[in-house]
Amino acid sequence: MANPRVPVTTLARLFNLTERRVQQLARDGVIPKPEKGRYDLIACVQAYIKYLQDRATGRGDIEPQDTYAERARLLKAQADKTELEVKAMTGEVLPAEQVELLWSGLVASFRARLLALPVRCAQLVMSLKAYAEIEACLRAQVYEALNELSRYDPEHGEPIDTGGPEQGDIVIEEGGELERAAADTPDQRVGGQLPLFEQ
């Protein structure tokens, strides 16, 4: 009796796979290829059982079904790459090297500004007698440094010179009191609590 030949639908139902998957197995050489659209039932069953045994013992090659997973992974990676390129073109994201350069410039400016504080403050506090005046003077210098750094311009590597205190900057008044610079609009508060970085 000749080996029975069956259509792809029969093999798909027998193997519990889709017809497309059965055709993929045939293309990958896992099962014999069909002749005139029909598959040798016994040869295909034996080949598929051997394929499953090899996979179970780790002797088989990469599973052909992985081709679909790999293709999907590749498509997702390409989509992610394209999305990042679009964001880079629109300025939503920056290259890591540029961010690192900007941060290192800011940290260098911060370090230089902090190292200059003792020299500036020493001259200012020498004439002051009261503890509260000295504390207010030192606090004002710290806030001045922080305000200056908040206007840091990465293009020039230095704080932006605005010619005077900005809204929200800390300024020292004649009586030694610290206040915020005047707000530009009437509904914004003037003075009030100092920023969160005050200890």
Can you describe what's shown?
The chain starts with a strand and ends in a 19-residue tail after the last strand. The protein has 199 residues and is mainly alpha-helical. Among the domains are: 5-57; 96-180, no CATH class. Mean pLDDT is 76; it is low at 160-199. The strands form three sheets. It has a two-stranded antiparallel ribbon with strand order 1-2. A hairpin with a 5-residue loop joins strand 5 (170-172) and strand 6 (178-180). The longest helix is centred in the middle third of the chain and has 30 residues, at 96-125. Helix content is 55%, strand content 7%. The protein has helices at residues 8-15, 19-27, 41-57, 66-90, 96-125, 131-150; strands spanning 5-6, 39-40, 152-153, 158-159, 170-172, 178-180. It is rod-shaped.
Key traits:
199 residues, rod-shaped, single chain, 55% helix
SSE layout and pairing:
Layout: E1 5-6, H1 8-15, H2 19-27, E2 39-40, H3 41-57, H4 66-90, H5 96-125, H6 131-150, E3 152-153, E4 158-159, E5 170-172, E6 178-180
Antiparallel strand pairs: 1-2, 3-4, 5-6
H/E series, N to C? EHHEHHHHEEEE
Indicate the overall shape: rod-shaped
**What's the number of extended β-strand segments?**
6
User: Whole-Å distance between the termini?
Assistant: 95 Å
Oligomeric description of these chains: single chain
The helix fraction, in percent, is 40-55%
Average pLDDT level: 76
Strand content: 5-15%
Q: So how many helices?
A: 6
Gyration radius (Cα, Å) is 37 Å
